[in-house]
Every structure is written in C-alpha cells, then in structure tokens.
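Backbone-to-sequence.
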C-alpha cells in the first residue's frame, strides 16, 4: 500500500515576483540602455547611392552623404557610438592594404565626415584592420611562404591607427588578432600626440563562420581562412589569455566576438577585466534573426531584445549590434 500524504504546498514561491508587469520590472536584473549600444556601419568608395547588403537586409554600404545622415540618426536615437568599416574600390586594394592609412582613403574620409557631423556627441570608433584593403583579403601582410607575417603587420596597424586618430576617431579598434598589436598602436598614438585616443581591443576573437555576411558587406576576396590568427572556437581558456595580454599591453576596453555563442568566454572576461567589456553581435547573428523573422518564424522584436539582453546579462558593458537603431530593440 502507498503511503498517503497531505498534498504538499510550497513555501518558496518565486512566482510572487512575476505577478504583474510592474512587479517584473521592479525586480528586473538586467536592463539594456541605448547608450551602451554601438552601431557597426560601412562606407563604400565609388557609389552614388547606398547599396543594401544582400545577406544583411536592412544594412547598407553608405555614401559619404548617407553616412552623415546615419550618424545623425545615431545621435537622435541616443545610442552610444558608431563603429566604421571602409570598403575601397577594387582597384585601390594592394598587398599591404595601403589605402587603409591614406589620408583620403575611404575609411578615413568616412571618419572625417562623421566627426564633422556629430563632433563629440557620439563615440566614433574606427575598425583598425587591413582585410578590407588587401588584395588577398587577409588581416595582415603575407610573406613569401604564404603565411600572415605578424611583426611586419604591426607597423602597418600603427600607421593605420594614427591616420584614424587624425581623421577624428575617438577609439581605434584593432581587430586583426596579431600578437602585440595593442602595445604597438598605443606607442604610435602616444608618439604622435594622440594619448587621449582609446584602444578597444578585439581580445577574444574567434575564427567564426558567423562572419560570413560581413565578408559580403566589405566585398572581401579572402582565399583560405583566418585560423592562424583568429582563435579556435573550441578554446575558452585561450580567450582569457588573449584578454590578459591585451590588458597588459594597455587596452582601454576589451571585446569578445562573436557574442551570442561565446557567452561563457564573455562571462569569464567580465569577471576579471578592470576595463569595460564589449561584445560584438556579428553579421551572422544578425542575418539569422532577420531571415527567420522574414519568414514569420520568430517574433523579431522580442528575439532581438532577448539576444541583446542575454549578452548584457553575461557581462557585456557595451554591445556592438546591427540592431542598435532598431525601433523594437528597447521598447
Ligand atoms: C575583420 C573583421 C571582421 C568582422 C569585423 N572585423 C571579419 C573577419 O574577421 O573576417 C566581422 C564582423 C561581423 O561579422 O559582423 N576586420
């Protein structure tokens, strides 16, 4: 015979704190504020009107004029910043990516336009890398054995960063995963009198297939892959090592990228970092949500909010996201 008992009633009732919308908001642990969002944006040389990026519906390669308008919208929306990438003309690419540091190179022109439009009302971040500008599509120079040459690349990053500071960037952001890039850039900026320009280090950046749509966005002709410089997605501890090195080299902010599939790495980094931690919700994360929503398979606004909230909950102080100007994001 089974023992008969009185029906059990719980005494701990977490549901009490979920009874009304006001109650739920009162106890909400994570809130996303527009000021902590950064919009990645693209400027392309040689176009007359903005070109929508096929694999990133809703995102455009901008002209100088449309970039100006976009920067103004960022200010009006009250977001924190804009992160600019440049798309040069095909014929301007070379083995070193020299248009990256040319004063009239497309990225530097874009930075000037934004700074002219918004001044200090928005934090202007420059992507400091060579892949958009090199004929082979790698983030650095390639030596005669076909390998990406770390130390030869560092000098070029230093020149690029200084040119970006001169063009008006408040922050430069080395994203190429070369060893020593933060220190070399810091020294170069200081030597040129740009000691107030900050460095956002892409510290734990993984060789991710989620960057796929971005390569359309910048017209990348990459042959091969980036596995000798970007990290293996399987490695968590290594993300911490990369971060500690960047902190020691003088990073003012560190970043984990991609974001949504690397929340463990992000939480690790957030637990030890003495500087603000950023996370980049990348092109593939954006494209998947857009595609599913276009099919009516997901409630877009809710998924966008949930994805960004998850990144902040895991420890990001700053989120780079293509959804930053999205009406539904914060409402
Ligand atoms: C490289 C760079 C990449 C992204 C930002 N900077 C691509 C890559 O490493 O291949 C990807 C951003 C995204 O996917 O949204 N300069």
């Amino acid at each position: 015979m089974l023992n008969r008992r009185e029906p059990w009633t719980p005494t701990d009732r977490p549901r009490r704190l979920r009874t009304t919308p006001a109650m739920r908001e009162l106890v909400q642990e994570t809130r996303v504020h527009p000021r902590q969002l950064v919009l990645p944006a693209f400027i392309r040389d040689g176009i007359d009107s903005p070109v929508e990026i096929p694999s990133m519906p809703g995102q455009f390669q901008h002209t100088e004029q449309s970039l100006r308008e976009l920067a103004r919208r960022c200010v009006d929306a009250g977001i924190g910043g804009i992160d600019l990438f440049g798309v040069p003309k095909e014929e301007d690419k070379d083995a070193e990516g020299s248009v990256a540091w040319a004063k009239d190179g497309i990225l530097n022109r874009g930075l000037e336009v934004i700074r002219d439009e918004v001044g200090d009302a928005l934090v202007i971040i420059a992507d400091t890398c060579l892949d958009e500008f090199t004929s082979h599509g790698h983030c650095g120079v390639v030596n005669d054995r076909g390998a990406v040459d770390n130390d030869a690349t560092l000098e070029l990053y230093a020149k690029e960063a200084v040119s970006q500071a001169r063009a008006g960037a408040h922050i430069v952001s080395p994203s190429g995963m070369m060893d020593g890039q933060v220190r070399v850039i810091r020294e170069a900026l200081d030597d040129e009198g740009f000691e107030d320009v900050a460095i956002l280090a892409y510290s734990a950046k993984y060789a991710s297939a989620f960057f796929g749509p971005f390569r359309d966005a910048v017209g990348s002709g990459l042959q091969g892959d980036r596995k000798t410089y970007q990290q293996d997605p399987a490695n968590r501890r290594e993300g911490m090592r990369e971060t500690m090195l960047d902190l020691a080299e003088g990073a003012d902010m560190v970043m984990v990228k991609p974001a949504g599939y690397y929340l463990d790495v992000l939480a690790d980094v957030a637990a030890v970092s003495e500087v603000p931690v950023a996370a980049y919700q990348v092109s593939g994360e954006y494209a998947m949500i857009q595609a599913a929503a276009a099919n009516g398979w997901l409630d877009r606004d809710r998924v966008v909010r949930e994805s960004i909230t998850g990144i902040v909950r895991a420890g990001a102080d700053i989120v780079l996201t293509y959804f930053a100007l999205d009406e539904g994001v914060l409402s």
